[in-house]
Write a structure and sequence with these properties.
- The protein has 578 residues and is an alpha+beta fold.
- It has a domain at 319-494: Alpha-Beta Complex (Flavocytochrome C3, Chain A, domain 1).
- It has 16 helices and 23 strands.
- It has helices spanning 14-25, 56-60, 67-78, 84-104, 166-173, 179-196, 207-221, 273-279, 297-304, 364-374, 389-395, 407-412, 422-429, 433-449, 461-465, 542-556; strands at residues 3-10, 30-33, 50-51, 109-111, 131-134, 137-138, 157-158, 162-163, 204-205, 226-227, 232-238, 241-249, 252-264, 309-310, 317-326, 332-336, 347-350, 383-388, 417-419, 485-497, 500-501, 508-510, 516-522.
- The strands form 6 sheets. Strands 1, 2, 10, 11, 12, 13, 22 and 23 form an 8-stranded mixed sheet that branches.
- Strand 12 (241-249) and strand 13 form a beta hairpin.
- Helix 1 (14-25) packs parallel to helix 16 (542-556).
- Bound molecules: flavin-adenine dinucleotide.
Length: 578
């Protein structure tokens, strides 16, 4: 039977679920269709941080953020790469979206007291307040529906199903070091064992899993139907307007008509080989951190109907440097080197020539941009994190956690390489021997001066935030001098795509002539990044994803009244890309 709704949302990641929830809260009759058997997409496996300038939550937390400062910051970071109108729309709605979420739902976020913007030394950059983090969510209140929440990647859970956030990790690794550590450990571990009596994993959700768990819970509360195993097959266009969508369901193909339109939120490029070849640089692995159900459907189905693809100016990919551990059973465990190791003293990154190419404590995206540049023209883009035994013992490296537990296991699996001397390490890995020795010698000299004159490791608040505060004067610098030495191969991998469908300030998809395709919206990674391939701060994709979801819902409900007056930009300082 054909069905008619006000708004059909396709894809139940953070962007799609937000669009469906806001639409329902604003009086629309909504249907949400998800291809996979669970909701959450990449969002469920993410850190869940949301870059949302100027929210009331920042005031509540005592770290007030200011839209004007965020505007100045974005002007400096994104510069003249275009798309300013969409960024103005984002700035105009960011605080309203967060307020509506906070006041009308139980999706709870907190402004981070300390979570600095990623592009350092810029006017308007924030140290805290701008990035928001999901509050813990108790998944058990979903009851039997908890099974519909996609779990995080297995490698991010302890004890086979327990979530731990960054602040708790140290305590869990050293539970008997102090009373405080013991209390934190008990707070995390005890509920886990209780929840395992009823569920197949822990129900104390944090980070991205808390975000999608609570969004899903609120969709249920609002009686929004969510169809699982129901991928979009095709959009139906009549007289230039998208009027329907064919959805494949367990009962067969259903045609859904939607009076106000169709929202594509299928997670961007993901595993779509054709789009990866078109948009991503040569030498990138074909692996993705997206779930397998993200196959670029929103983009490809819209392109079939004349939509325009907007490759981002700097990069159509947003990256994490990742290391890969192949399990004996063939499972490829991936460790994204986000915050824990690169910035620490005594850790450097080199290319095959043994040369450093980057400030290791810069953002993961900027790290990879430099890595790609340093490997240009090569078949594969690979570099190595190098450290000595003191550093790996103290800070860990990838899957090797502080304390260097299970070191031999990872050495045997060829995840990590080790040797007593740098010469031997170079021989084992194929890194240029003299290059590596010279680099380490020179780096150690710079450490004595406390200044990385080559790349500036440890300059700026964001760099120092991820360093070791006990190390002075520069919390990111330390010598590599006590063997054995270690090398860990890292490659860039997409944590998100930033190239996507071209859209207008209401999230309406544009055609090749920059005209609106009536009835078709996109948000999340299906909509090209409003930051044009730059990575301004923590939450760069979820922030705009949720704000544009809100704008689409408001627009579809006829409630969007514009508050911003678009001004041409005055570029004060232009960021140079890595
Ligand atoms: C480890 C990790 C940590 C990250 N941390 C952060 C962070 O802290 N902050 C941040 O901003 N970003 C982060 N990112 C990036 C972020 O997770 C993604 O950019 C974001 O989740 C994309 O959201 P989305 O809603 O667009 O897509 P997704 O969350 O991927 O959801 C897309 C959904 O669409 C479904 N779908 C696909 N095709 C169809 C179809 N044909 N029909 C119906 N449904 C379909 C998929 O199954 C999926 O459920 C992180 C990424 C990773 C990998």
């Amino acid at each position: 039977m054909d069905q008619q709704v006000d708004l059909l949302v396709i894809g139940a990641g953070a962007a799609g679920m937000s669009a469906a929830l806001f639409a329902k809260l604003n009086g629309l009759n909504v249907l949400l269709c998800e291809k996979a058997a669970q909701a959450g997409g990449t969002s469920a496996t993410s850190g869940g941080t949301i870059w949302a300038p100027g929210s009331h939550l920042s005031v509540k937390a005592g770290v007030p953020d200011d839209i004007e400062q965020a505007r100045i910051f974005l002007r400096s970071v994104v510069g003249e790469r275009g798309g300013e109108e969409l960024r103005e729309a984002f700035l105009a709605s960011s605080a309203d979206m967060i307020r509506e979420l906070d006041e009308k739902t139980t999706v709870k976020l907190n402004a981070c007291l300390a979570h600095p913007d990623y592009v350092k030394n810029q006017p308007g950059e924030a140290f805290g307040g701008r990035a928001l983090a999901p509050a813990e969510f108790d998944g058990s209140i979903l009851g039997a529906d908890f099974k519909y929440v996609r779990p995080p990647r297995p490698e991010f859970m302890g004890l086979g199903g327990m979530m731990v956030n960054r602040n708790e990790l140290n305590a869990l690794l050293n539970p008997v070091q102090s009373i405080q550590n013991l209390m934190i450990t008990l707070k995390v571990v005890l509920p886990y064992f209780f929840s395992r009596l009823r569920f197949n994993r822990g129900t104390r959700l944090v980070m991205g899993n808390a975000l999608v768990g609570s969004l899903f819970y609120n969709l249920k509360k609002q009686h929004v139907p969510v169809w699982f195993n129901s991928p979009l097959q095709e959009l139906i266009v009549e007289k230039g307007k998208v009027v329907g969508a064919k959805i494949q369901t367990e009962k067969g193909t259903e045609v859904i008509y939607a009076r106000q339109g169709f929202v594509l939120a299928t997670g961007g490029v993901g595993w779509n080989e054709q789009l990866r070849q078109q948009l991503f640089p040569k030498g990138l692995t074909s692996d993705s951190l997206s779930p397998l159900s993200n196959t670029g459907d929103g983009l490809s189905k819209a392109i079939q109907k004349g939509a325009k693809l907007d490759p981002s100016v700097d990069s159509s990919v947003l990256y994490f440097p990742c290391s890969i551990h192949m399990h004996a059973n063939g499972y490829k465990a991936i460790w994204p080197h986000i915050i824990l190791d690169r910035a620490k003293p005594g850790v450097i990154a080199v290319n095959e020539n043994g040369k450093r190419f980057v400030n290791e404590s810069d953002s993961y995206h900027d790290f990879c941009m430099a890595q790609i540049k340093s490997n240009r023209g090569k078949e594969t883009i690979q570099s190595y994190l190098i450290c000595d035994h003191t550093a790996i013992e103290k800070y860990g490296l990838g899957f090797i956690l502080p304390g260097a537990k299970k070191l031999n296991y990872y050495l045997k699996a060829n995840y990590l390489f080790s040797a007593n001397t740098l010469e031997e390490l170079a021989k084992k890995t194929g890194i240029d021997k003299q290059g590596l020795i010279n680099t380490v010698q020179y780096f150690n000299q710079m450490v004595e001066q406390g200044v990385d004159t080559d790349f500036g490791k440890g300059t700026g608040v964001m760099n120092r935030f991820n360093g070791d505060p006990e190390v002075k004067p520069n919390p990111c610098l330390g010598k590599l001098e006590h063997g054995p030495y270690y090398a860990l191969p890292v490659i860039p991998m997409d944590c998100a795509s930033s190239g996507g469908l071209a859209g207008d300030i209401y999230g309406r998809v544009l055609d090749q002539n920059n005209q609106v395709i009536s009835g078709l919206f996109a948000c999340g990674n299906d909509l090209a990044s409003i930051f044009k391939g730059t990575y301004p701060g923590p939450g760069t994709t979820l922030g705009p994803g949720m704000v544009f979801a809100w704008r689409i819902a408001q627009f579809a409900a006829g409630k969007l009244t514009e508050k911003f007056n678009h001004q041409p930009i005055q570029v004060t300082q232009q960021r140079r890309s890595a």
